[in-house]
Design goal:
Number of helices: 14
Structural class: alpha+beta
Shape: elongated
Order of helices and strands: HEHHEEEEHEHEHHEHHHEEEHEHEHH
Distance between the termini: 33 Å
Strand content: 25-35%
Radius of gyration: 23 Å
Mean pLDDT: 89
């Protein structure tokens, strides 16, 4: 990596994402980036959940766009993420671009920044740790997300599972088939998408998820988000809507994205009337077999390391929350507020902000968030 290659990269700030959407899409598609750094995912997320102002750090070599880091300006800078985000990162065609974007992030002038769902040990994580060493970084684990590497065949993989797990799946399938005709279906959303989503969201929202308010249909913003994600993924050719049916009645559902050889399982649910017959477990087995059959390289279960996921694999991604605090008093006080929420630190932050506002007024100017 040459110094010249790095210094030839120019990073600018763009607060109107529409201006770079086409070039952003072409870059993400060209380098086969994760779906979660594509502009389509960002647009769906922002429409449903965005609360501050969008900020894009955009890297270019000459006129060619080589990287994008999407952010939200809200009490500092933060990643546009929440618990519906499987992972987050820097879209960069090479390491010099990644370093230039991370450098620009730390130079942006925010007293505090928060980046969620960063992959521990990945290129983004290591670059943030190295380039942001002066910004008092704090890290904590948000999630441990299980995944499967799909080597060999389904039969070999199934034989490698614990015998108790294999017996349970066979017993559940036998009992379900004894009570009716069972079928596994996969749809790409090119036809009858709205009807498929209605059926799937109904299943996903039944039972405990609805009671706890975590289901797709429990909140209008969440419903909007997953509908928009499904439409975007269908347009990309990435959507995967899977159903387990019993006598032509849908009893389990999974919404996922298949992109660049990886299957991401975003949402699942089942009819609680069939709970004792394990429709969710059986659909998971059918889905994993399907990923083998179509030649995928990896199956990302997404979310937390629930026991039913760990019955399939011991491999997990560790997803981090990274806080960064600018050198100086404002960064120090924000750090104390986030670390332990001390009332004194909160009062100190208010005093610092009040003093900064008075100073800005006296100068007749303004500074970045």
């Amino acid at each position: 990596m040459s110094t010249g290659a790095r210094t030839s990269i120019r990073v600018t700030t763009e607060e109107h994402p529409g201006r770079v959407m086409r070039a952003w899409y072409e870059l993400a598609t060209g380098i086969q980036a994760s779906p979660f750094v594509h502009p389509g995912w960002f647009r769906a997320w922002w429409k449903a959940f965005g609360r501050g102002r969008p900020v894009l750090l955009v890297a270019r070599r000459g006129r060619e766009l080589t990287g994008v880091l999407a952010l939200e300006r809200r009490r500092g800078l933060r990643s546009p993420t929440n618990w519906h985000t499987p992972e987050f990162g820097v879209l960069a065609e090479d390491q010099p671009t990644r370093e230039a974007l991370v450098d620009a992030l730390f130079r942006h002038g925010a007293s505090a920044l928060t980046l969620d769902f960063i992959d521990a040990g990945g290129a983004d994580h290591e670059t943030i740790r190295h380039r942001g060493a002066e910004h008092h970084l704090l890290e904590r684990t948000l999630q441990r997300s299980p995944y499967l590497v799909l080597d060999g065949t389904w039969d070999d993989f199934f034989a490698s599972l614990k015998s108790s797990h294999r017996r349970q799946l066979r017993r559940l399938r036998r009992r379900l088939e004894e009570s009716g005709e069972v079928a596994f279906e996969v749809h790409d959303g090119h036809t009858n998408l709205d009807g498929l989503l209605r059926d799937g969201f109904r299943l996903e929202s039944s039972g405990w998820k609805d009671r706890q308010g975590t289901a797709i249909l429990s909140d209008a913003a969440i419903t909007t988000f997953y509908r928009d994600v499904a439409r975007w993924a269908a347009d990309q050719g990435w959507l995967r809507l899977a159903f387990l049916t019993h006598d032509d009645r849908s009893i389990a559902f999974a919404l996922g994205v298949d992109a660049n050889g990886v299957t991401y399982g975003l949402k699942t649910g089942y009819d609680p009337a069939f709970r004792s017959l394990g429709p969710g477990r059986l659909l998971q087995a059918d889905l994993i077999r399907h990923t083998f059959d179509v030649g995928q390289r990896r199956f990302e279960m997404v979310g937390t390391d629930d026991a039913y996921k760990l019955s399939w694999t011991n491999d997990v991604h560790v997803r981090l929350r990274i806080h960064g605090f600018a050198p100086g008093l404002a960064g120090f006080v924000r750090r104390r507020v986030i670390v332990d929420g001390r009332p004194l630190a909160k009062r100190g932050l208010a005093a610092v902000q009040h003093g900064t506002q008075r100073l800005r007024g006296a100068r007749g100017g303004h500074e970045g968030a």
